[in-house]
Amino acid sequence: MTATVDAPTSARAGEVEEPPAGQDAVREAVLDVCRAARVASKALATATRATKDAALLAVADALVAQAPRVEAANARDLERGAAEGLPANLLDRLRLDAGRLAAIAGAVRDVAALPDPVGEVVRGQTLPNGLRLRQLRVPMGVVAVVYEARPNVTVDAASLALKSGNAVVLRGGSAARETNAVVVEVVREALAASGLPADLVSTVDEHGREGVRHLLRARGLVDVLVPRGGAGLIAEVVRSSTVPVIETGTGNCHVYVDAAADLDVALAVALNSKTQRTSTCNTAETVLVHAAVAGAFLPALLTAMSAEGVRLHGDDAVRAAAEGLDGVEVEPATDEDWATEYLALELAVAVVPDLDAALAHIDRWSTQHTEAVVTRDLAVAERFAAEVDSAAVMVNASTRFTDGAQLGLGAEVGISTQKLHARGPMGLAELTTTRWVVTGDGHVRA
Amino acid sequence: MTATVDAPTSARAGEVEEPPAGQDAVREAVLDVCRAARVASKALATATRATKDAALLAVADALVAQAPRVEAANARDLERGAAEGLPANLLDRLRLDAGRLAAIAGAVRDVAALPDPVGEVVRGQTLPNGLRLRQLRVPMGVVAVVYEARPNVTVDAASLALKSGNAVVLRGGSAARETNAVVVEVVREALAASGLPADLVSTVDEHGREGVRHLLRARGLVDVLVPRGGAGLIAEVVRSSTVPVIETGTGNCHVYVDAAADLDVALAVALNSKTQRTSTCNTAETVLVHAAVAGAFLPALLTAMSAEGVRLHGDDAVRAAAEGLDGVEVEPATDEDWATEYLALELAVAVVPDLDAALAHIDRWSTQHTEAVVTRDLAVAERFAAEVDSAAVMVNASTRFTDGAQLGLGAEVGISTQKLHARGPMGLAELTTTRWVVTGDGHVRA
């Protein structure tokens, strides 16, 4: 925090910048939402877990009870989306029916059942001079989540923020705007009915793209911003935001099949990592195969991938192995293939001479999300885990396990690929910070 | 990390930007230093503690053995500084004599004696499906430290970075450039003699201000940047850096004397917080006094502060209390006084009607560094600790205790006032990140 002070009516607004002329109304509206969130967050910072859990259960119940209201708004979004020519898969991502709402409500109840990170004593001791130290886990304060077109994120983000003692300001994009507006209303009503400030959950959707711009620059009012969406959204947020950002998940993930791999395991892991779901950040985009097992493994890999409809790119060795395989076509791979996160049924494959080469390829091309090794060799597994500079390393397991729920962390705010503050799947603890509380008896320094 | 890929010769250079024409030579030189640091860091990431400690002890010994060489360079900096009219206190900050070098070497040996954070298993479990999870503490990679004119920071930063498995790129400013250049040479020679890459420690000082600009934008090659210096330096770094920054310490710290305070403790804590050292970030800048004890306390506080040469600013109640006190002058306080981190023998004092008002004042004006409360009342102490949104809260203790060494954390990289990643004094663990290592037996997702 710099020593600049803004208009005294805004607490902690020391770094809010002056906007171009004409945007003042939108800017003030957005900052007002953030200020109200900040005030609300102070009430929640000291709330007991029981209070927060009761509110979450009320939110879950309200989502189910108000399903017709939500579905009606959702229908309007779907109608508009179809009219604007949204493809079927994107319309499907938008759709909320009674079943999906029930699942969302269930996820909220799951969050209520999680332990409360707030109040954890991360560490502490009594010093030789008698000072009693505690490093306490406390809420971040105000969390902003900027996401695209997935109404379940609205509730996910709200429930995780509330459980960890934070207020949340949401920006959900225009495709799901009617759905999100009603969902936020339902949540706010449930909070108020529980005796908590409705302003704990709010949205800036009505202010459109201009609103987001001011949200990104509300440093001092918003404590952390989590973008969830495609690489374009994330890059723009990282570039423009003065609010601290937790950069989530572009995943150019690799599976390395080692000389000592169990080839049946390798096939299962590679197939699952690529095809179990193709548009997620933890989907594998490149398979590296040790030359010693390439002859035995590539035919099975390429045939199985082709059978799943995966478009293949490979180096010369891979293309040579593909010759004579029915129904298998492998296009020549270029550097762009090694670099690309396809997010589709598409895969790049290379043969590597040894583990060193595999590690070098990964070091050069990965986005530091998740890399998997298939091997029976302990030293190889240990070296891979120690030297691959990614958020997660899988040993004889699918890259698809980099996921908060899969790793037992509870629901997930996103998967961080950065190194500071959070790395890998982000859960409740990542929405908190810490505070030192030092108690003395008049202690002073000599 | 975005999916952009830069020239393939640079590992992880996906986000390095194109510079204005003509700066290419400096930019390449700086990026080369960062690339070399990154390569060196990979060798250190898997080094045992024994290896790192031996290198640190070699560094300590070399600093002592090479003292004449360092002092000769230091003499040149002091001569130049005096010729350029540097004030005596700044010249003193630059000075390195045999005694100070011995103390610096001792601090390096202390770091060698600290536990190694690398390899800590932060958490882990075996999931119901049999997946074995570990969240490992691993080095950040390449740490950059940008600081001003304090040669001991050169060695501090290097020793902490090395101990935590990182390479470090330094920028120490022009005032101490000859000293720092020689110190870095001595450290590099000691590392090489210990069998580690000399490029683990390097400096971009020779490239001046232009060099720093490229260092700040070496996102992808440098993992974290720590600025240490005045508010101006920190603000500029935060504003310009695309490398993740850990914002360190402007401290507009408060001491709140509660209605239930032991007034002797209050006086001692207030005096120590303000005067024990005046130019540090954990120095108190404002004292708030509950109205119920103002009559009894203010005369003693104002008299004692004046006797220490502290220039006083106060609200009307404080000025009224000052009337009739010999040798005590209190200037009228404005909002600027509540906002200002004086970093001098200067203090703002206000009377507050109650705890709520004290908390509101702190919430509005603090830079979220350190706030102290003096009270005998348990509920007041608990509420203060729970509601003051700062990195550290002192209860009946001086604000000067917010310090890595004082809190038993070992040597200190800086004191963070941000909420993400590190909060309060930053030690070894804050120069690390984590990695999930998940081991299965061919596990795939359904």
UniProtKB/TrEMBL annotation, chains A, B:
Q: What is its main location?
A: cytoplasm
User: Which catalytic reaction applies to this protein?
Assistant: L-glutamate 5-semialdehyde + phosphate + NADP(+) = L-glutamyl 5-phosphate + NADPH + H(+)
**Gene3D superfamilies given for it?**
Aldehyde Dehydrogenase, Chain A, domain 1, Aldehyde Dehydrogenase, Chain A, domain 2
Write out the ranges of the annotated region (Disordered). Answer: 1-22
Record's family? Belongs to the gamma-glutamyl phosphate reductase family.
Q: Could you tell me what this protein does? A: Catalyzes the NADPH-dependent reduction of L-glutamate 5-phosphate into L-glutamate 5-semialdehyde and phosphate. The product spontaneously undergoes cyclization to form 1-pyrroline-5-carboxylate.
Question: Could you tell me which PANTHER family the record lists for this protein?
Answer: DELTA-1-PYRROLINE-5-CARBOXYLATE SYNTHASE (PTHR11063:SF8), GLUTAMATE SEMIALDEHYDE DEHYDROGENASE (PTHR11063)
Q: What is this protein called?
A: Gamma-glutamyl phosphate reductase
Source organism of this protein record: Pseudokineococcus marinus
